[in-house]
Amino acid sequence: MDNTKPTNQRQLQVRISRGSEDGTFSTYSVPWRENQTVLDVVTEVQRTQEPSLSYRFACRVGVCGSCAMTVNGKPRWTCRTHVSRVEEDGVIVIEPLRNMPRIKDLVVDMREFFEKWKRAGNTFVGTATRNDPPAMISPQSKKRKLADAAIECINCGVCYAACDVVSWDKEYLGPAALNRAWTLFNDERHADPKDVLSKATSGSGCNSCHSQGSCMQHCPVSLSPTGSIAGLKRSSILSLLRRG
Ligand code: SF4
Ligand code: SF4
Ligand code: FES
């Protein structure tokens, strides 16, 4: 379908993947505005030309992680991606995130992504009761620094979409779940860090990562799942040596 309308204002051509199968695109024309984001463009298409277009967003300020899509071939958070940074000859192509089943248009099913968080051992079990004083973890503690460096994940799924190993091996836990496992492993309030390490290491866990860093390059909040996964690998070897 071609919804391009002639106009005197400079126009941006937007190709959006539609439906629930790969390969069907509709083309729209929207006015080129200063500082517009990719999410602004999708919203404008939905509000003015294609009311049935499905997509997700919530906060619009880079906090909730719900707006991620593939833009000109790369996974990105669309509410913080300016059109001027990604357009190619006045065209942007918008598709759903890779590596997750598609529901419709730009909406993917993230159940498997979050299921893997559980499989990676990411359930916090505290040692304190509600009657205990708050845990005093020094900001200078080495473990706290390691956890803090990886904690600001917004669950956007961009790293998961950028990971080739996820494409090849559907069982691979993926960068976000393993990044979270690393924070929990280093959380000094957690009752069973050995359980986290065991779950994050077994099967298609951290040892399946090839360490080439695509997740790290694409993470919109500059986390390094690659570094976290390397930490899990190191810790699992140390744990084996200690047992040995
Ligand atoms: S470094 Fe590991 S987790 Fe990150 S994209 Fe590559 S294989 Fe995936
Ligand atoms: S690690 Fe980064 S890219 Fe991956 S889900 Fe978290 S915020 Fe998104
Ligand atoms: S809409 Fe919340 S991060 Fe983009």
Short description:
The chain contains ten helices and seven strands.
Model description:
This protein has two domains: 11-108, Ubiquitin-like (UB roll) (Roll), CATH 3.10.20.30; 111-243, Fumarate Reductase Iron-sulfur Protein, Chain B, domain 2 (Orthogonal Bundle). 36% of the residues lie in helices and 13% in strands. The protein has helices at residues 38-48, 83-86, 111-119, 142-150, 158-162, 164-168, 175-185, 193-201, 214-218, 225-243; strands at 11-17, 25-31, 68-71, 74-77, 91-95, 102-104, 107-108. It has a five-stranded mixed sheet with strand order 2-1-5-3-4. A hairpin with a 2-residue loop joins strand 3 and strand 4. One iron/sulfur cluster is lined by residues 153-159, 175-176, 179, 219, 221, 223, 225.
Provide keyphrases for this structure.
Fumarate Reductase Iron-sulfur Protein, Chain B, domain 2, 13% strand, elongated, binds FE2/S2 (inorganic) cluster, 2 domains, two-stranded antiparallel sheet, binds iron/sulfur cluster, 5-stranded mixed sheet, Ubiquitin-like (UB roll)
What would CATH call the class of the largest domain?
Mainly Alpha
Which architecture of the largest domain does the CATH hierarchy give at level 2?
A: Orthogonal Bundle
Give me the CATH superfamily of the largest domain. Alpha-helical ferredoxin
Uncertain runs are 1-6
Write down the CATH topology of the largest domain: Fumarate Reductase Iron-sulfur Protein, Chain B, domain 2
Order of strands across the biggest sheet? 2-1-5-3-4
Attached small molecules? iron/sulfur cluster, FE2/S2 (inorganic) cluster
Average pLDDT, all residues: 94
Which word captures the global form? elongated
Radius of gyration equals: 21 Å
How many separate domains make up the residues?
Answer: 2
Distance separating the two termini: 64 Å
H/E element order: EEHEEHEEEHHHHHHHH
β content, as a range?
5-15%
Largest sheet: 5 strands, mixed
Helix content, binned percent: 25-40%
Protein name: Succinate dehydrogenase iron-sulfur subunit
Catalytic activity: a quinone + succinate = fumarate + a quinol
GO molecular function: succinate dehydrogenase (quinone) activity
Pathway: Carbohydrate metabolism; tricarboxylic acid cycle; fumarate from succinate (bacterial route): step 1/1
